């Protein structure tokens, strides 16, 4: 994904003609293409021209392909302005009434009658297909992420599952097993812990990052080698609110291939597409002569960072009083209850393979990102998400 | 700079830790699991027991104990002391022989293995040729005679195990000289027995399995006499005067043979007397026979087995016949072996005591007192005479209570012999224990046993039975101990091992004793809670039960478990000791899972899987009932599945029937067990080869919908700041399986109105831990970070009163974390995550005081923690930092981990088998372990009257001689031991000073 800006057509003027529709009302005004301003200013302007100052609304526009796309941050706002040709058609909806089904349907032109009319004329109440509700990126809560890609061997994957506040079960099982490692003495069979089953609809399955027969190497930064199945089970349960598992995926074909030399880690950079690495290959030995990887896996976060505040939220009910969560630092309690990975993200944004909610990887006109989001993410209830979104915007990540 | 300083602090902390903490598995208490061999040295006055797991344990006078473990994981089949030496030889079932010695080192003896040996036959010979079946240490102390399955007798020199081939007695040599008319001469079979002539050390008798006995002269290397018994031989005994040989046989008969001069003298060979004591019908084998003379009158004849096969084949009996007295001692478990102790110097006097090792206990019978009473054992007491269900340790018992308990116990032990303990070998050098400690064990049959756990011997003090309060399943007429007059054989029940519980509901689950007031509370399987008071007089009470409905109107409930126990309505006469004061019964009658007593406030709190309650035992009413049950928790609602229960019950009943109907099942049982083990071993091997079918574990966060979240795990009374920081109030804290803590404020009337004004309890706080792990302990720490003292402790001037000015803290111990909260406003202050880091979960936690071994006045409170991995940790207070950890119990040993109790002074106990406690210590200052000296008997110099100084000197000399003679291996062993020893003796000196 890149910012492949379209050059504005020659006939475009410096002003962009805007036609905004809210309910049955239209407003027309113009904007300076070269100085579009920020999204919140634009949002205020819309509220002003429609005289709906206190209405939360969803702003959409029809792009050149006729797709109905949202405007909700500076990036997609700028994109919308820059691609308007010359008319920018806006559709405003009350947030609570918003219909998300029509985004990115690629059919605004083709099925103009049906889809557009569906938007223009209020959506029918007795629609046959139940609406699949997709939140806007800023409404998303993270459910999982791949982290520390830059420091882990390519054959490994460190996955973080955000269980907190979710109804959804973690939903996986582990078992004992053995893996084959390459040592100077030859192949050696060593005991290991493997994922044995995924619960359909569980958090683990829905992320798509874990699979049956993946070998579990670490739990929250602590190696599981030498630990019994029960110990690993207990460790995972004890960390279940913020579980970080390092696995060696059974299927090594979907590994992230980084550009060679780019990463500073000691990984051999060897393509993991090769069939040889499919079974019984671990970085411990296979990285070979060139760059021996230390036997312990480096981690990019100090152990202390794992101490998130989340489980300090024990609930205390005083006699006759209200329930309140216990907080360690009540004075500067600005961090959200969602565990953050702030230090790491600040240092190495590139290491996070994710769509960031504040738009470093913009959703500019690409239906792809939304489709991916549709496929990969499971949306939490919008209400809860809304309460939290301000807190999440700067740090948390959404996985593809 | 800063780093340097911190480093300095750390190293200083490390030093303090070394002064405070040290891990020792000091010793084992109780009766060895699965004993398999017994040995006795009359000269050393030591008893040796070998076990199926390869352990060898030596016992002398109370406090004199040694333990050794063979490296091979094989059963000890025979133990023989070497005459006139402090050494013994063991035979394992892998056919290896091991030489052990008691070596004095730095003033105390230790048991060391100094050699091992396996007979090697000629090349190509079948293994049976050298498979040892009989061992005879020759009275010279230099030879060991080994009879084998092949029928040969090998002679080896000891110590050193040098084979003396030229003196071996081969089967051929013997067979050639067997009279032609002996029917079994073609196959004499294995060597069953070897005995030395007590008056002529050159003569030995070799008993072959087929029945033939041959008297062999070791000097002349020839047979001097043949005794042609024709029944399968079981054992041989040479009488003390050397004139007769007794043989016992597999058909239940025994014969007495005159020992003659030369072979061929026909009359003298004849068996003088043959008898089948329990005759007529087929009898079982007499496995061992002993005859001992008395100065005046007839000899004692003792033999094991020989019971009529059909009617009493399942009994485990030893028959003692003396003059007109004939008793068949009837034991409750299989007889391993027995011997008789004789009085007097050199053990030449009268038989004084019969020592019998049966599978589950050691029984000693006084043969000199009328009626042959049992002598109470000071050690080796079967802890499991009824299965242990829980334990409770109380440190530093006030003398007053101690004496009263002993007095109550003495009244229970009147049937024991007054004779002193007859096994008196060795000297106990351990200093007197610094304090009186009591270990209480709860048992399946509803008894609570009080043990003196202060020193090396775990001595039984008193036994409390709670079953008298209830009607039980047992029929009063159904007494198994009934003895009918004129019964033949004349049985007499001996021993206390009785694993058959009358009613499983009687089982004791929780115990709490207040050592200052003498109040005891015990709680059982069927939701019964008894409060008992120590009374020195017998008294008759009617016990009224108070039923507490813990469900509090919770709907949709269906209890499928057992019913409540029926309380006796008529007055019951209670003997002196602990007598019931109050009885509470929970409804539903689920097992009591938490119990605590506050003797100052006269309150008892208890909990089950349904809720908890506080009972005022002065006013005899409930002051608080709280239901903690989650309405959707069906499992907890229904209780244990009744179908399983009933099967168990019916099984138990049928077992009892079987026992009564005198049909052998036990032997059968043993055989089956052995077969099963074999099959299991084979299966295991097969499984190991196959790829194991994987066991799966579900990974899921705990939720409020889990089962048994309402189960009450811990209850705690504390006088602390619950509502505001200026007024402390009595409070009750309860922790559940679902990670929830309830706190109640208790309002107690002033002392003068305590009897009539009501006590109230108000809910004050509820804390739901986010991680929802079960709560295993709650402790309130005072302003100094020290745990609050026990009730009445301050009143008795035994503890510093807690700091009530500084702010108190609440320590909540869950299975996963240790967490410190501030009080009265509950906010998290510190925590230690255990499970998230190493995957182990807290099973037991207890506050203990650790004194420094360097300076007398320094000590720290710490939290002792046992995890499900079997590790023990010490966690500092109030900082909750891990201090030290040691591996203590195998993680697979679930019952061991579950049985662990901590003391208040850094020690702990856990069951290593149903009948043995292992005692361990984490403290440098508090360590109980045997400390004793055994002197080798002075054989060559009969002047045995030595002064202690002379003794020491001679032992040193002996040491020197030994060391020069023995292999270098020894020196190595000693070197490695020396380091430990130094530490150990230093500690001892310090503890002695303390």
Automatic annotation (TrEMBL), chain A:
CDD domains in the cross-refs: PB1_Par6, PDZ_Par6-like
SUPFAM superfamilies for the chain: CAD & PB1 domains (SSF54277), PDZ domain-like (SSF50156)
Subcellular location: Cell junction, Tight junction; Cell membrane; Cytoplasm
The PDZ domain, residue ranges: 158-251
Main location: other
Biased composition (Low complexity): 363-377
Region (Disordered): 359-400
Lineage of source species: Eukaryota, Metazoa, Chordata, Craniata, Vertebrata
A single GO cellular-component term on record: nucleus
Annotated PB1 domain residues: 15-95
Cross-referenced PANTHER family: PAR-6-RELATED (PTHR14102), PARTITIONING DEFECTIVE 6 HOMOLOG BETA (PTHR14102:SF4)
The protein's name: Partitioning defective 6 homolog beta isoform X1
Gene symbol of the encoding locus: pard6b
Species name: Betta splendens (Siamese fighting fish)
Keywords: Cell cycle, Cell division, Cell junction, Cell membrane, Cytoplasm, Membrane, Tight junction
GO biological process: cell division; centrosome cycle; establishment or maintenance of cell polarity; regulation of cellular localization
UniProtKB/TrEMBL annotation, chain B:
WD repeats mapped onto the chain: 434-452
Gene Ontology cellular component terms for the protein in this record: cortical actin cytoskeleton; plasma membrane
Gene3D superfamilies assigned: YVTN repeat-like/Quinoprotein amine dehydrogenase
Subcellular localization, as worded in the UniProt entry: Cytoplasm
Keyword terms: Cell cycle, Coiled coil, Cytoplasm, Exocytosis, Phosphoprotein, Repeat, WD repeat
Stretches of the chain forming a coiled coil according to its record: 666-693
InterPro entries: Lethal2_giant, LLGL2, WD40/YVTN_repeat-like_dom_sf, WD40_repeat_dom_sf, WD40_rpt
Domain Lethal giant larvae homologue residues, every copy: 275-373
Gene Ontology molecular function: GTPase activator activity; myosin II binding
GO terms under biological process: cortical actin cytoskeleton organization; establishment of spindle orientation; exocytosis; Golgi to plasma membrane transport; regulation of establishment or maintenance of cell polarity; regulation of Notch signaling pathway
Family statement: Belongs to the WD repeat L(2)GL family.
Protein name from the UniProt record: LLGL scribble cell polarity complex component 2
Species of origin: Betta splendens (Siamese fighting fish)
Gene: llgl2
């Amino acid at each position: 994904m890149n910012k492949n800006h379209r050059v504005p057509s020659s006939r475009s003027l410096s002003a962009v003609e805007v036609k905004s529709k809210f309910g049955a009302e239209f407003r027309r005004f113009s904007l300076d293409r070269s100085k579009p301003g920020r999204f919140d200013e634009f949002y205020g302007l819309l509220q002003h021209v429609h005289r709906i100052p206190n209405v939360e609304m969803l702003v959409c526009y029809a792009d050149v392909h006729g797709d109905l796309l949202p405007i909700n941050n500076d990036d997609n706002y700028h994109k919308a302005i820059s691609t308007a040709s010359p008319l920018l058609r806006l559709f405003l909806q009350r947030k609570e009434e918003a219909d998300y089904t029509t985004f990115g349907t690629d059919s605004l032109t083709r099925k103009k009658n049906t889809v557009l009319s569906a938007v223009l004329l209020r959506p029918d109440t007795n629609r046959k297909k139940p609406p699949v509700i997709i939140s806007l990126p800023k409404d998303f809560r993270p459910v999982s992420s791949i982290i520390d890609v830059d420091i882990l061997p390519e054959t490994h994957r460190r996955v973080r599952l955000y269980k907190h506040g979710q109804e959804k079960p973690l939903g996986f099982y582990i078992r004992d097993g053995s893996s084959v490692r390459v040592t100077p003495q030859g192949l050696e069979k060593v005991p290991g812990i493997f994922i044995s089953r995924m619960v359909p609809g569980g958090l683990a399955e829905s992320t798509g990052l874990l699979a049956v027969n993946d070998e579990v190497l670490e739990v929250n930064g602590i190696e599981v080698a030498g630990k019994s199945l029960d110990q690993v089970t207990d460790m995972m349960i004890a960390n279940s609110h913020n579980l970080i598992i390092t696995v060696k995926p059974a299927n090594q074909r979907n590994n992230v291939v980084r550009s060679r030399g780019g990463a500073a880690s000691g990984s051999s950079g060897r393509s993991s597409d090769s069939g040889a690495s499919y079974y019984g290959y671990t970085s411990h030995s296979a990285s070979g002569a060139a760059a021996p990887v230390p036997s312990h896996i480096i981690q990019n976060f100090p152990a202390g960072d794992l101490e998130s505040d989340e489980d300090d939220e024990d609930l205390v009910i005083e006699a006759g009083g209200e329930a309140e969560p216990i907080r360690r630092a009540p004075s500067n309690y600005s961090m959200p209850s969602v565990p953050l990975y702030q230090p790491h993200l600040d240092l190495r944004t590139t290491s996070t393979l994710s769509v960031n909610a504040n738009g470093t990887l913009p959703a500019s006109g690409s239906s792809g990102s939304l489709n991916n989001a549709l496929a990969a993410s499971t949306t939490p209830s919008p209400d809860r998400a809304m309460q939290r979104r301000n807190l999440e915007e700067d740090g948390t990540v959404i996985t593809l | 700079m800063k780093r340097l300083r911190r480093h300095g602090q750390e190293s200083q902390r490390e030093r303090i830790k070394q002064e405070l903490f040290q891990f020792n598995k000091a010793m084992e208490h109780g009766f060895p699991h699965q004993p398999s061999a017994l040995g006795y040295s009359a000269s050393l006055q030591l008893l040796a027991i070998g076990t199926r797991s390869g352990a060898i344990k030596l016992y002398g006078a109370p406090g004199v104990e040694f333990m050794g473990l063979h490296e091979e994981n094989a059963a000890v089949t025979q133990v023989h002391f070497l005459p006139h030496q402090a050494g013994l030889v063991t035979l394992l079932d892998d056919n290896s022989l091991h030489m052990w010695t008691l070596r004095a080192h730095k003033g105390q003896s230790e048991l060391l293995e100094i050699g091992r040996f396996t007979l090697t036959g000629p090349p190509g010979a079948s293994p049976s040729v050298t498979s040892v079946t009989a061992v005879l240490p020759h009275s010279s102390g230099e030879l060991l005679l080994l009879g084998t399955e092949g029928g040969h007798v090998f002679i080896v020199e000891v110590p050193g195990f040098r084979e003396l081939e030229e003196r071996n007695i081969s089967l051929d040599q013997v067979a050639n000289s067997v009279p032609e008319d002996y029917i079994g001469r073609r196959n004499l079979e294995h060597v069953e027995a070897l005995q030395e002539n007590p008056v002529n050390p050159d003569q030995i008798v070799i008993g072959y399995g087929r029945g033939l006995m041959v008297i062999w002269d070791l000097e002349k290397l020839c047979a001097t006499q043949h005794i042609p018994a024709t029944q399968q031989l079981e054992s041989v005994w040479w009488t003390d005067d050397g004139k007769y040989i007794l043989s016992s046989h597999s058909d239940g008969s025994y014969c007495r043979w005159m020992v003659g001069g030369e072979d061929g003298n026909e009359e003298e060979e004849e068996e003088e007397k043959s008898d089948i004591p329990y005759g007529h019908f087929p009898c079982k084998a007499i496995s061992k026979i002993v005859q001992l003379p008395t100065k005046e009158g007839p000899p004692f004849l003792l033999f094991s087995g020989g019971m009529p096969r059909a009617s009493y084949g399942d009994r485990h009996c030893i028959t003692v016949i003396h003059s007109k007295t004939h008793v068949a001692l009837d034991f409750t478990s299989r007889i391993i072996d027995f011997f008789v102790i004789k009085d007097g110097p050199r053990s030449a006097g009268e038989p004084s005591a019969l020592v019998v090792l049966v599978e589950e206990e050691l029984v000693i019978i006084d043969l000199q007192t009328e009626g042959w009473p049992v002598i109470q054992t000071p050690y080796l007491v079967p802890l499991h005479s009824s299965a242990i269900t829980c334990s409770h340790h109380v440190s530093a018992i006030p003398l007053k209570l101690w004496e009263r308990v002993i007095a109550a116990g003495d009244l229970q032990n009147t049937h024991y012999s007054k004779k002193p303990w007859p096994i008196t070998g060795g000297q106990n050098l351990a200093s007197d224990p610094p304090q009186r400690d009591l270990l209480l064990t709860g048992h399946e049959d509803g008894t609570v046993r009080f043990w003196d756990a202060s020193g090396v011997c775990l001595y039984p003090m008193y036994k409390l039975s709670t079953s008298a309060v209830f009607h039980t399943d047992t029929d009063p007429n159904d007494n198994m101990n009934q003895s009918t007059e004129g019964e033949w054989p004349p049985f007499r029940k001996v021993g206390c091992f009785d694993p058959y519980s009358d009613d499983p509901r009687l089982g004791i689950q929780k115990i709490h004793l207040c050592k200052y007031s003498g109040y005891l509370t015990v709680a059982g399987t069927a939701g019964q809670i008894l409060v008992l008071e120590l009374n020195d007089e017998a008294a008759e009470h009617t016990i009224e039960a108070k039923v507490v409905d813990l469900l509090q109107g919770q709907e949709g409930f269906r209890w499928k478990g057992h019913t409540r126990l029926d309380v006796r309505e008529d007055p019951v006469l209670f003997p002196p000791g602990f007598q019931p004061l109050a009885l509470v019964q929970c409804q539903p009658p689920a097992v009591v899972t938490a119990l605590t007593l506050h003797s100052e406030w006269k309150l008892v709190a208890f909990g089950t899987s349904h809720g908890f309650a506080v009972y005022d035992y002065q006013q005899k009413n409930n002051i608080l009932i709280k239901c903690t049950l989650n309405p959707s928790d069906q499992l907890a609602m229904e209780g244990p599945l009744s179908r399983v229960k009933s099967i168990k019950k019916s099984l138990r009943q049928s077992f009892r029937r079987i026992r009564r109907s005198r049909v052998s099942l036990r032997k059968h049982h043993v055989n089956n067990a052995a077969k099963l083990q074999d099959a299991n071993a084979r299966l295991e091997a097969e499984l190991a080869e196959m790829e194991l079918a994987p066991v799966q574990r579900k990974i899921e966060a705990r939720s409020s919908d889990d089962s048994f979240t309402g189960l009450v795990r811990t209850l705690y009374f504390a006088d602390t700041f619950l509502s505001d920081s200026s007024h402390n109030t009595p409070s009750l804290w309860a922790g559940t399986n679902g990670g929830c803590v309830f706190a109640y404020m208790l309002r107690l009337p002033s002392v003068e109105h305590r009897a009539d004004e009501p006590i109230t309890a108000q809910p004050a706080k509820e804390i739901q831990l986010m991680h929802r792990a079960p709560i295993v302990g709650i402790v309130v720490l005072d302003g100094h970070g020290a745990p609050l003292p026990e009730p009445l402790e301050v009143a008795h001037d035994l503890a510093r009163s807690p700091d009530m000015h500084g702010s108190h803290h609440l320590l909540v111990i869950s299975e996963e974390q240790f967490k410190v909260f501030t009080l009265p406003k509950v906010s998290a202050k510190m925590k230690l995550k255990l499970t998230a880091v190493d995957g182990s979960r807290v099973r037991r936690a207890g506050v203990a005081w650790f004194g420094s071994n360097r300076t007398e006045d320094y000590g720290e409170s710490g939290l002792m923690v046992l995890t499900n991995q079997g590790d023990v940790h010490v966690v500092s207070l109030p900082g909750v930092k891990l201090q030290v950890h040691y591996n203590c119990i195998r993680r697979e040993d679930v019952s061991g981990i579950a049985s662990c109790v901590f003391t208040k002074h850094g020690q702990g106990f856990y069951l290593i088998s149903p009948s043995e406690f292992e005692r361990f210590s984490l403290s440098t200052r508090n360590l109980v372990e045997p400390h004793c000296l055994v002197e080798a008997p002075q054989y060559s110099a009969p002047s045995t009257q030595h002064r202690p100084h002379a003794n020491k000197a001679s032992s040193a000399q002996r040491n020197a001689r030994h060391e020069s003679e023995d292999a270098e291996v020894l020196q190595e062993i000693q070197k490695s031991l020396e380091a430990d020893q130094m530490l150990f003796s230093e500690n001892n000196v310090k503890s002695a000073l303390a």
